[in-house]
Amino acid sequence: MSQLRQYEKQLVAADVRIKVVTFDGDWLAAAYAKKTQLPWPLLLDPDQSLYKAYAMKHGNWWNIYNPLSVAKYLWLIVRGHAPGRPGTDWRQLGGDVLIDPDGNVSLHYVSSDPHDRPTPQSILEIVARSTP
Fold it and tell me: Does the N terminus or the C terminus of the chain have fewer Cβ atoms within 10 A?
């Protein structure tokens, strides 16, 4: 999400409206939003219906704690951003879904590990291609 923050002006200029979805309870979600100073709306999906509808995967131990993930977690810790405790379903992986104003899905990205996300540049390219 920190990458998205770096591109927030370009995303706003492209009329991209970001929504963050979590399946954690409201108090965990509120604590996360406060701790990270989340600038976007945080939507609750406690029964994971959106995750299921968009076929987001559950990771196994290796997906979650592979060497790249461990290195990224260590890098966060070194930079003073210790990862919080896992939420209610620590195996649930995320993804990114880009829906155009007509309701068409122009990007459906299912993450293979906690850090696997499309780049903000690729999102902007998709928006540019789909804008008349």
Answer: C
